[in-house]
Amino acid sequence: MANDQTNASPDASNEDRRFFLKQSIAIAGLSAVPTGLLQAALEPDDGPVGNAVKIQLSLTINGKRKRISVDPRMSLLDLLRENLGLTGIKKGCDFGQCGACTVHIDGRRTLSCLTFAVMQHGRKVTTIEGLSHGGQLHPLQEAFIKHDGFQCGYCTPGQLMSGIACIREGYADSPDEVREYMSGNLCRCGAYPNIVDAILEVKKEGLKV
Amino acid sequence: MKPFQYLRPKTVSEAVSMALDNPEAQYIAGGTNLIDLMKRGIASPPKLIDINHLPLKKIEHRYDRIRIGALALNSDVAQHKLVKTRQPLLAEALLAGASGQIRNMATVGGNLLQRTRCSYFYDVALPCNKRKPGSGCGAEGGINRTHAIFFNGSEVPSCIAVHPSDMCVALAALDTSVVVAGPAGERRILFKDLHRLSTKEPEMDTTLNPGELITSIEVLDNAFTGHSHYLKVRDRASYAFALVSVAAALQMDGGKIWDARLALGGVAHKPWRYWAIELMLRGQPPSEKLFREVAEHELQSARAGEHNAYKIKLTANAMIAALKIAAGIS
User: Fold this and answer.
1) Residues B47, B90 share a domain
2) d(CA B145, CA B135)
3) How many structural domains compose chain B?
4) What ipTM was reported for this prediction?
């Protein structure tokens, strides 16, 4: 199989190519992708950015600038979790329905599962790991603990990222408003009333979020 | 997911020429519909043209209209002062759609071009004329609770899914043009002519030509402010598609309706506007009786399937409720 893959992009480094080949073989083994398609992915770059092999991008993640090369099919969620080890952010449905993967991009809440990492070139990403500073929890994290805003905790990172955005956007003035503007974050344990209380309290106290 | 070529043009003309090279190429903006479909193997464009770096985000008032760039985010449009004051119906409809996160990602152009779809479109194990033309319709003999009740006359539709956008229902009710860039330059499409019905070629949701790129929409000024309402009925209180939605806008003076607009979502393959009702309302004093009469008149042409007969009554009641709120009568 490796012999079929000699048509690699001229600008791909050997290391990248080896990684890609390993990945391709793994993909082919798992899902029986015809080798023709994998070959198509290795055709030389004919555009201003690149083909499906690897694309360079620059991202600021939790304040640190990173240059990374990624397969353009990789979601921002997978990049953060699988490549950069930021596993605080969770993969729930992976189809934009549950909100567990919510991060902030340029300060705005976004679903990291429904965007390709390459589309976020040049942006600033904040994950749950970027919330606390020097061991000091974010006020909404403190409020979630105080109000018992979770049971299993799986949806909690997404709830926190969305809750902070909800306060910043100015939609946290009543329980109804919080429920409406937090509707993109599901909690199968049903901690909703406590989540609403935590968000309302942080908003009411006027704490900086 | 199948590999694709990823391109990032810097100008509109560069984007259009990239798309013209390959009829299967697709533009991507917010990606909230397309990436979902790509992950499920329903869409597999060999070439993806990321238009997010094009200068198409501006929202401005020019002469007699608001012009909204195709890349303006749904959340930005809903919160924009010009939109809130001059086209509150549009702001209301946008906030009724999707979730806070998705509104921060989805663009105006992408909202217009999201697929008309149902759960059979997503289920690759079952037939779907839209996904695979000629394969049949899973919903016709299946569960069709959320499906269409209005069609093109008595013709047999090849797809009974409904267009899921809220924004588009408001735009259908207002005087909207869609500005498109293509190989031959710029053209304007009246909103009613952008989306297609499904009698033929259900795989095509719009009338855009290959390579054409939506660059902005224009919504004409009107005198509906203070007398418009977007009513959305759904299975749960938030973050769900409409079973039925109504965009109602009235121009009122001296206790009479001088102009009226009415469009519905969740009932047809495209946002459904009621020109006949609008004419019937003109010159009349608003009343529940009047609204009931016009709603029942229009619904005579509705056609339900096995599971969605409830939509006929629901649509009538939603129309009456929305018109009453718009007219300010209780």
Assistant:
1) no
2) 21
3) 2
4) 0.96
